Automatic annotation (TrEMBL):
Chain segments annotated as transmembrane: none
Superkingdom of the organism of origin: Eukaryota
Protein name: Bactericidal permeability-increasing protein
InterPro entries according to UniProt: Bactericidal_perm-incr_a/b_dom (IPR017943), BPI/LBP (IPR030675), BPI/LBP/Plunc (IPR032942), Lipid-bd_serum_glycop_C (IPR001124), Lipid-bd_serum_glycop_N (IPR017942)
Family annotation (CDD domains): BPI1 (cd00025)
Domain Lipid-binding serum glycoprotein C-terminal, chain residue ranges per copy: 273-477
Disulfide bridge map: 161-200
Organism: Patiria miniata (Bat star)
Membership in a protein family: Belongs to the BPI/LBP/Plunc superfamily. BPI/LBP family.
A GO CC annotation given for this chain: extracellular space
Signal sequence range: 1-21
SUPFAM superfamilies cross-referenced by the UniProt entry: Bactericidal permeability-increasing protein, BPI
Domain Lipid-binding serum glycoprotein N-terminal: 30-257
């Protein structure tokens, strides 16, 4: 059970404050006690399924039976038929990690028995048995830290685990079972002694080898697309004080080029005592700024607008069209019935700020206008400075952070011209319509893809509520965290 719940917890740990961080986190996360309770319940449900397939080693022993004398017995092919843990808690221990306690554990199993007497007259017999365990209790502490790669670590010492098998009752069937039930108490004691000795040893081994191995394989980065990767490695060890707090790098960097720090300052995430929901995320605009920087360096904010990219009948970039004739009459006369091209190039990375109720994005770009000659040569006309800004609303589907916008604000000014003076007001209106047509669908398409939240296919967050603060937003999840976990994670 400890292993199962810890595996669920491992995924949540990679979602999320620490006061001694050498690196200021780009985002923080919290799992409240109610979130831990959910993980406990989810772990129990998974355990009920897993324990049906648990392989139980055979047990051999020796007992003395009146009339028969000393016998040697083996119980084998044991199968668990029922299992219940009516009471369990998963709590934090400050400076250490998590403590799992379970009591009132009941279990029933069945299997085969065989005995032999190696005296003067060899006697042997076999049959089946039913056994029940009740009133068992377990307590195990998981010591959780951080390795140099920013992954969580986990360990347990022998002093961190205690198990009491409670009472064990065995009933033998078949053969001369009426006689052999006289030594069923010896078998019961053997099973109880074996459980008391082996349970904690097994749990500690699973924690220190199997579970730690799984932790060491946890990914601290998630690809967004072919250009960018998000880093959500831990910058400090998780903190435990009635809830679990984690601090993460929260930076986006290029996927296939050497990693270099982006030229931005990470804002301070203010303390927040709220523990009213399962899971909390505090995300600074540093994460978005670094993403914008990566995409700018990759040339993702460069667009070439040509007629073949326009919808039929919507806009015409032909120099003889009514729009061009009215806006640029000299161009229409000098280059009749030719196509035009507009090249948009960002001159700096976008500026992204989280406001009171949305994310504000501003981009400065040059818009270069050309005429395309029949031989495909571009004839330069003029360049506009532009500042494009929009507000986006955030949402989450439980696996990623998404956004959308429905309007843009564009301010343009003439930067240089090869065709003399230009009437800027009608040009500005046309550029606004053209830019909105291209940029809004692109922004929303990228928003539908979203940023991956640091979860896994085993964990899906539901009923997300987003709250806005200056330079950051917080998201919280209540009531529902869908999870599914196989033995291999």
């Amino acid at each position: 059970m400890a292993l199962t719940i810890a595996l669920l917890l491992a995924t949540c740990l990679m979602m999320g404050p620490s006061v001694e961080a050498e690196v200021r986190p780009g985002f923080e996360a919290r799992i409240s006690q109610s979130g831990l309770n959910y993980l406990r319940d989810a772990g129990l449900e998974i355990l009920k399924e897993e324990i049906k397939h648990l392989s139980i080693p055979d047990i051999s022993g020796k007992a003395h039976v009146s009339v028969v004398g000393n016998i040697y017995y083996t119980i084998s092919n044991m199968r668990i038929n029922s299992f219940a843990i009516p009471s369990a808690t998963l709590t934090t221990q400050s400076g250490v990690g998590l403590v799992l306690r379970a009591s009132g554990i009941t279990l029933s199993l069945s299997g085969n028995w065989h005995y032999s007497n190696h005296g003067f007259i060899h006697i042997s017999d076999s049959g089946t048995f039913d056994a029940s365990l009740s009133g068992a209790s377990l307590a195990v502490t998981l010591r959780i830290g951080k390795d140099q790669a920013g992954r969580p670590t986990v360990s347990s010492a022998s002093s961190d685990c205690s198990f009491n098998a409670g009472s064990v009752h065995v009933k033998l069937h078949g053969g001369a079972s009426w006689l052999y039930n006289l030594f069923s108490g010896s078998i019961s004691n053997s099973i109880k002694s074996s459980l008391n000795k082996q349970t904690c040893s097994m749990i500690i081994k699973e924690v220190n080898t199997d579970l730690q191995k799984q932790f060491s394989k946890l990914k601290t980065q998630a690809p967004i697309d072919q250009y960018a990767v998000i880093d959500y490695s831990l910058v400090t060890a998780p903190q435990f004080s009635g809830h679990v707090d984690t601090a993460h790098k929260g930076e986006v960097f290029p996927r296939d080029t050497p990693h270099k720090e982006a030229p931005y300052t990470v804002p301070v995430i203010p303390p927040d005592p709220d523990v009213s929901r399962h899971v909390f995320l505090w995300v600074t605009d540093y994460l978005f700024q670094t993403a914008a920087y990566v995409y700018y360096e990759a040339g993702k904010f460069e667009f070439n607008v040509t007629q073949d990219k326009m919808p039929p009948g919507k806009y015409s970039l032909n120099t003889s069209s009514f729009l061009v004739e009215s806006l640029l009459p000299n161009v229409s006369k000098k280059y009749p019935n030719l196509l035009m091209q507009v090249n948009a190039n960002a001159t700096a990375p976008p500026v992204i700020n989280i406001g009171e109720d949305n994310v504000n994005v501003s981009l400065k770009a040059d818009l270069d206008f050309f005429v395309t000659l029949p031989n495909k040569t571009l004839v330069y006309l003029f360049t506009l400075n532009s500042t494009i800004s929009c507000s986006t609303l955030l949402s989450s589907d439980g696996m990623s952070l998404k956004w959308m916008t429905d309007s843009l604000r564009i301010v343009v000014a003439l930067k240089r011209s090869a065709i003399g003076k230009i009437q800027m007001k009608p040009i500005s209106e046309a550029v606004h319509a053209l830019t909105s047509f291209f940029l809004i669908p692109w922004i929303n398409e990228e928003g539908r893809k979203g940023f991956p939240l640091p979860t896994s296919p085993n964990i899906k967050l539901e009923k997300t509520v987003i709250n806005w603060l200056y330079n950051l937003f917080s998201g919280s999840i209540s009531n529902s965290i869908k999870s599914s976990l196989n033995k291999q994670v």
